[in-house]
Amino acid sequence: MRRWISAFRLQTLPLAFACIISGAGIGVLAGIQNWTLLFLALLTATCLQILSNLANDYGDAISGVDNSDRLGPERAVQSGEISVGAMKKAVFLFSTLSLIAGLTLLKIAFNQISLQFILFFVLGVAAIAAAIKYTIGKNAYGYSGLGDISVFVFFGLVGVLGASYLFAGEFNLESVFLSISIGCFSVGVLNLNNLRDIENDAKFGKNTLVVKRGKPWGIVYHYALIGFGWLSYLVFFISQSLNLYFLIPFLTVPLFISNVQAVKNHTNPKELIPKLKQLALGTFVFSILLFCATLLS
């Protein structure tokens, strides 16, 4: 059990929760508080995130990217604690659990098979496929520099806009700005991971954007992601008629500034390891403070 819990990488869940909590905040602004939906949405996000982590563990192990030169935490298949066959079965299991959790969420949200139900079901299947194909298969898109786009789409646009529609029953422009913020911060976490592993990834053909364009570009890219994320939230704040409660998430700004400075000044890739957790937790705290602001407003 210890081996599997470690393989689940539960420390990555706060980032997955951030988009759901932000979307739920939009629902609160619309006057809707549905705690059952929130629980089911978080459960679905948990299953999808664990699926993504297990698939990544499996894919990087069989491709050779996970090896003794990798700087990040030791993976389960790489270390030999979990066999390739067992991990493959776990990927199938969590694909099924993600599907079941997602269908339950849609049943509660829509109560009948409708156009919206079908659309969200298709998005759910796409999310499962994206989690698996990131590092698994001959055409794994994570090895072609497309991981950033995928994270922005699923952790930002789909995650926040989808959750806000489930809670509020409609799309609105304000939620778009919020989805861009969460999407940019989430891509920032991936970019830190890619900066840390740039040498090993290049050696084994994992052509992330940082591998393709170089470390200096990756550092500037990180500035842009964090900066644009906050700019988008500023637009969201203005869209809320400068409601002072929405200044509360700005309390996390020093944490983000510290993260950017650390990326700028680092000399050893290992220095970026704690910064991944910092940015992921910072994004989660940002979403929590935002949700609190919606409850107070």
Cα-to-Cα separation, first versus last residue: 43 Å
Number of helices: 13
Order of helices and strands: HHHHHHHHHHHHH
Tell me, rounded to a whole number, the average pLDDT. 91
Features of this protein?
297 residues; 13 helices; globular
What can you see in these coordinates?
The protein has helices at residues 2-8, 13-29, 35-63, 76-79, 84-110, 115-133, 147-168, 173-196, 198-203, 209-213, 215-239, 253-265, 273-296. By secondary structure, the chain is an all-alpha fold. It has one domain. Helix 2 (13-29) packs antiparallel against helix 8 (173-196), helix 2 runs parallel beside helix 13 (273-296) and helix 8 (173-196) runs antiparallel to helix 11. The radius of gyration is 19 Å and the shape is globular. 47% of the residues are buried.
Which helices and strands, and how do they pair?
Elements: H1 2-8, H2 13-29, H3 35-63, H4 76-79, H5 84-110, H6 115-133, H7 147-168, H8 173-196, H9 198-203, H10 209-213, H11 215-239, H12 253-265, H13 273-296
Task: Please sum up the structure shown.
This protein has 13 helices and no strands. By secondary structure, it is mainly α. The protein has one domain (13-296).
